[in-house]
């Protein structure tokens, strides 16, 4: 491809994707409100821009074929704090992509779009929205917008409902929810390279024996995860304290399912990990 745009490029996952995306296009435009975390790649340009400001975002997409939209606040916050980057920012990306004739948006959605679903139901990619937080609600908003822009304007979208993406599983919940960095890179690559996708939802999860979700309906993406959190089970299971009444243990959203609206869910995940 001639040009790919990556938002949220200074975040943990965006930073991890930079080299992969740079290898897939003649030009990579990386953007964030922060400075880059490492030296720029040979074909990479860095632009500081605010997702909530259309006049800053729209020009970056000119001439691009795809945008990989990973920019957002990645925790539960009061609605007013999420409105700009997570809600308006998503609209700005889709609208700018439409205006400039992009083919596809690859979007970092989240398991929190269905975070109140039970772990033991074995949900798939047709599961209706059931957000656990304002953060999860923003993901529902963007997914629905992605479907609408496909059906009304022909702009393709792949919405990746990412679980717990870390270098290694951090706690017993991650035995089901972990997404390795290697599998993340493969998933995004497949979301870009698949010839036609229309509007597609896929779960960002590794090949975990205990995964509470299924990607069986989206096999056409060719995503075949390589890593399995079960390799850490012997270490992580003794740390668990089973409580069937604790929504953090029984819902796919984990601690986000239990926090009050507007309060940090990341803090609960850190507590599970003993950090």
Condensed summary:
The protein is α/β, with parallel strands linked by helices. The chain is built from nine helices and nine strands. This is NAD-dependent epimerase/dehydratase domain-containing protein.
Structure description:
Helix content is 32%, strand content 16%. The protein is an alpha/beta fold and 275 residues long. The model has no long low-confidence stretch (mean pLDDT 96). Helix 1 (12-22) packs across helix 6 and helix 3 packs parallel to helix 4 (134-153). The longest helix is centred in the N-terminal third of the chain and has 21 residues, at 79-99. The protein has one domain (3-272): 3-Layer(aba) Sandwich (Rossmann fold). It has helices spanning 12-22, 54-57, 79-99, 134-153, 174-177, 181-193, 233-236, 247-250, 266-272, and strands at 3-7, 27-32, 44-48, 66-69, 104-110, 156-162, 164-165, 178-179, 199-204.
Which SSEs are present, and which pair or pack?
Layout: E1 3-7, H1 12-22, E2 27-32, E3 44-48, H2 54-57, E4 66-69, H3 79-99, E5 104-110, H4 134-153, E6 156-162, E7 164-165, H5 174-177, E8 178-179, H6 181-193, E9 199-204, H7 233-236, H8 247-250, H9 266-272
Helix pairs in contact: 1-6, 3-4
**Helix-strand pattern, N to C?**
EHEEHEHEHEEHEHEHHH
Task: Provide the domain count.
Answer: 1
Secondary structure class reads: alpha/beta
Instruction: Assign the CATH topology.
Output: Rossmann fold
| Beta strands, count | 9
- What is the rounded Rg? 18 Å
Give the CATH H-level superfamily. Answer: NAD(P)-binding Rossmann-like Domain
CATH top level class name: Alpha Beta
Q: Can you count the helices?
A: 9
Sheet of most strands = 7 strands, parallel
Q: Strand-residue fraction?
A: 15-25%
InterPro entries: Epimerase_deHydtase, NAD(P)-bd_dom_sf
Protein name: NAD-dependent epimerase/dehydratase domain-containing protein
Family: Belongs to the NAD(P)-dependent epimerase/dehydratase family.
Organism: Oceanicola granulosus (strain ATCC BAA-861 / DSM 15982 / KCTC 12143 / HTCC2516)
């Amino acid at each position: 491809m001639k040009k790919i745009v990556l938002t949220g490029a200074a975040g943990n996952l965006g930073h991890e994707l930079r080299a992969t995306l740079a290898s897939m296009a003649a030009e990579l435009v990386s953007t964030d409100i922060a400075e880059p975390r490492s030296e720029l790649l040979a074909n990479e340009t860095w632009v500081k821009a605010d997702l909530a400001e259309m006049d800053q975002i729209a020009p970056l997409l000119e001439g691009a074929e795809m945008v990989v939209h990973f920019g957002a606040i990645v925790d539960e916050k009061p609605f007013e704090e999420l409105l700009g980057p997570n809600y308006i920012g998503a609209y700005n990306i889709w609208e700018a992509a439409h205006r400039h004739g992009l083919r596809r948006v690859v979007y970092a959605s989240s398991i929190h779009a269905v975070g109140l679903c039970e772990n033991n139901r074995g949900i798939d990619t047709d599961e209706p929205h059931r957000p656990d937080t304002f953060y999860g609600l923003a993901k529902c908003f963007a997914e629905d917008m992605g479907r609408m822009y496909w059906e009304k304007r022909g702009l393709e979208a792949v919405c990746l409902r990412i679980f717990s993406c870390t270098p290694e599983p951090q706690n017993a919940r991650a035995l089901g929810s972990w997404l390795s960095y290697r599998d993340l890179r493969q998933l995004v690559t497949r979301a870009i390279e698949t010839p036609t996708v229309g509007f597609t939802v896929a779960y960002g999860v590794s090949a975990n024996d205990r995964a509470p979700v299924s990607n069986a309906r989206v096999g056409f993406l060719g995503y075949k995860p390589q890593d399995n959190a079960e390799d850490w089970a012997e270490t992580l299971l003794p740390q668990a304290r089973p409580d069937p009444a604790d929504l953090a243990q029984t819902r796919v959203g984990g601690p986000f399912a239990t926090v009050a609206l507007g309060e940090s869910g990341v803090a609960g995940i850190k507590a599970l990990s003993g950090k």
